[in-house]
Amino acid sequence: MTKPMDPETLLQELETMLARMEELQSRKVFELARRLKPNLTLEDIRNPHDFPELDDNDWHYEDGMLTGIQSVATALRAHLRETYS
Fold first, then answer.
1. Dihedral, CA atoms, 79, 10, 69, 35, nearest 10 degrees?
2. Is residue 71 part of a domain?
């Protein structure tokens, strides 16, 4: 049986894990966007309404997953700042 982590270490581990998840999901969203419309840039996909090709259920789902991961990461970072600053 493993010993539980102290809360500060656990929160830091979660932050690291969320950063990895965000990076992977960002790459997935970008690659899917480029399959739908080649030559899109990262800046382009920040404005998907400008590109009718991105009106795709799969792309919206993956982009929504990215937004969820980013929201959780933001909340965790705010909690860390409030708790440990």
1. 150
2. yes
